[in-house]
């Protein structure tokens, strides 16, 4: 039996050579090209058992070529490579009918394993899914290996109705992933309904999920639809599922088993057609051992487990994330901001207990409270100062203006080349103190400059001049 023939297309000769060597050592025949036209000619002539192609080719994008390949040879597995390691790249590869998506750089052993798996599978499993829909926005940010694996799993799930269990610490973006599953999946035409179990009183959870009839309990003056009814035909996201009481867990299990439910106080079974995506920041297996979560419900929900890494495990994504959050803040009317190199390094050293949500809050705070266009490391140090850092012998110094300035100066000197900051230090330090002082007073007086000048002990014209010279934004509000 002759070895399988692999068609490899990449305009980078070095990459073609490395792939050729790996595949040849594995016993495959390999044909190499640096353009899409040659690849298309080979495929249209019936050559090749598998295609491995980069997305960006000099003469045509592989995403434009893929539908033509799948049309004439629907059972030909196509493995897509790309250095554009974004969520949408993985989604587009899946939507175009790619067998697998590999972000560059990738492990050659993984490539060999994927090729072997594709050749071993029945040919009909590689048929095109034929969905031409594209998204224009980027719902998930990050190019780290951890996020690349998330993208690949999500891409495989988009055209399924499989129940997904998302685990991860608070602030890692579990609802964002659930929304991506909905917005780019087969149920995107239906509603997306999210419900947080931890935010609902325990005695109202069943009514919240399944609805209730008039008179079902005190205060039920009219029939109310539940979240299952509201999500019909779409996706129901059950966040913090570990906080669901046992009684509600039993009813949810029955819905998952039978595909129907009754409202609270109702007797007629209602058929349901929703995709369930659940999430938890708790270890449900521990809750099972403690008797707080049903094991049979866990296995019903945990069809496809998906763990979101904390930010500290994907810290290389931080520059992309902070830029993204600054852009969002600017769209909301806040001034544009950037970080200097030392500030970015300081952010990377932080542990981020609040994960991506903590970073987003920090970005908005920096955009709103600091007048300078470029945020420096001392500002980040001030923002990230933990209660532990300001406890004990340092607490008295930090709680005084002099102590805060002393900390600022120490950080400034230690973070400067050769231990010395650029000339003009006196005026810069005064400006660093003056701007937050005036900003805080103006905020407290709701932009009333007469009251602010009186509080500061300044002449009103002096205050106006400082506001103008320091380019301080004054936001007025009523009340």
TrEMBL record:
The lineage of its organism: Bacteria, Pseudomonadati, Pseudomonadota, Alphaproteobacteria, Hyphomicrobiales. The modification 4-aspartylphosphate is found at residue 54. It comes from the Bacteria. PROSITE patterns: RESPONSE_REGULATORY, SIGMA54_INTERACT_1, SIGMA54_INTERACT_2, SIGMA54_INTERACT_3, SIGMA54_INTERACT_4. It is found in: Cytoplasm. GO terms for biological process: regulation of DNA-templated transcription; regulation of nitrogen utilization. GO terms for molecular function: ATP binding; phosphorelay response regulator activity; sequence-specific DNA binding. Keywords: Activator, ATP-binding, Cytoplasm, DNA-binding, Nitrogen fixation, Nucleotide-binding, Phosphoprotein, Repressor, Transcription, Transcription regulation, Two-component regulatory system. Coiled coil: none annotated. This is DNA-binding transcriptional regulator NtrC. Pfam families: AAA_lid_14 (PF25601), HTH_8 (PF02954), Response_reg (PF00072), Sigma54_activat (PF00158). Residues 5-119 form the Response regulatory domain. Its main location: cytoplasm. Member of the two-component regulatory system NtrB/NtrC, which controls expression of the nitrogen-regulated (ntr) genes in response to nitrogen limitation. Phosphorylated NtrC binds directly to DNA and stimulates the formation of open promoter-sigma54-RNA polymerase complexes. The keyword Endoplasmic reticulum does not apply. One of its GO terms (cellular component) is cytoplasm. Residues 140-368 form the Sigma-54 factor interaction domain.
């Amino acid at each position: 039996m002759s070895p399988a023939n692999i068609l490899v297309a990449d305009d980078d000769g070095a990459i073609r050579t490395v792939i050729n060597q790996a595949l040849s050592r594995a016993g495959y025949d390999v044909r190499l090209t640096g353009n899409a036209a040659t690849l298309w000619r080979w495929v249209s002539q019936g050559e090749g058992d598998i295609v491995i192609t980069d997305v960006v080719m000099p003469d045509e994008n592989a995403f434009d070529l893929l539908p033509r390949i799948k049309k004439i040879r629907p059972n030909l597995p196509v493995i897509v490579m790309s250095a554009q390691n974004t969520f949408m790249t993985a989604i587009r590869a899946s939507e175009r009918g790619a067998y697998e998506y590999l972000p560059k750089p990738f492990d050659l052993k993984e490539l060999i394993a994927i090729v072997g798996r594709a050749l071993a599978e029945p040919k009909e499993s590689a048929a095109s899914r034929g969905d031409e829909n594209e998204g224009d926005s980027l719902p998930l940010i990050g190019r780290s290996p951890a996020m690349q694996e998330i993208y690949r799993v999500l891409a495989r799930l988009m055209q399924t109705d499989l129940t997904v269990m998302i685990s991860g610490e608070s602030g890692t973006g579990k609802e964002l992933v659930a929304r991506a599953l909905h917005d780019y999946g087969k149920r995107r035409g239906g509603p997306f309904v999210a419900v947080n179990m931890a935010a609902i009183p325990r005695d109202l959870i069943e009514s919240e999920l399944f609805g209730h009839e008039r008179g079902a309990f005190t205060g039920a003056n009219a029939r109310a639809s539940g979240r299952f009814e509201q999500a019909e035909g779409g996706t129901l996201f059950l966040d913090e599922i570990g906080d669901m009481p046992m009684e509600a867990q039993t009813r949810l299990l029955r819905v998952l088993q039978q595909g129907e439910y009754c409202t609270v106080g109702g007797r007629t079974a209602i058929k349901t057609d929703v995709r369930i995506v659940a999430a938890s920041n708790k270890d449900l297996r521990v809750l099972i051992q403690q008797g707080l979560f049903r094991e049979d419900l866990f296995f019903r929900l945990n069809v496809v487990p998906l763990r979101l890494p904390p930010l500290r495990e994907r810290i290389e994504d931080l520059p992309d994330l902070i830029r993204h959050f600054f852009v969002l803040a600017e769209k909301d009317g806040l001034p544009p901001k950037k970080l200097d190199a030392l500030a970015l390094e300081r952010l990377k050293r932080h542990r981020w207990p609040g994960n991506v949500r903590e970073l987003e809050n920090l970005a908005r705070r920096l955009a709103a409270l600091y007048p300078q266009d470029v945020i420096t490391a001392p500002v980040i140090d001030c923002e990230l100062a933990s209660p532990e850092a300001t406890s004990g012998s340092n607490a008295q110094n930090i709680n005084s203006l002099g102590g805060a300035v002393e900390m600022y100066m120490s950080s400034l000197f230690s973070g400067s080349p050769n231990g010395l900051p650029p000339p003009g230090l006196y005026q810069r330090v005064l400006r660093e103190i003056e701007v937050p002082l005036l900003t805080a007073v103006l905020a407290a007086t709701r932009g009333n400059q007469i009251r602010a000048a009186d509080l500061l002990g300044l002449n009103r014209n002096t205050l106006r001049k400082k506001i103008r010279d320091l380019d301080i934004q004054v936001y007025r509000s009523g009340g």
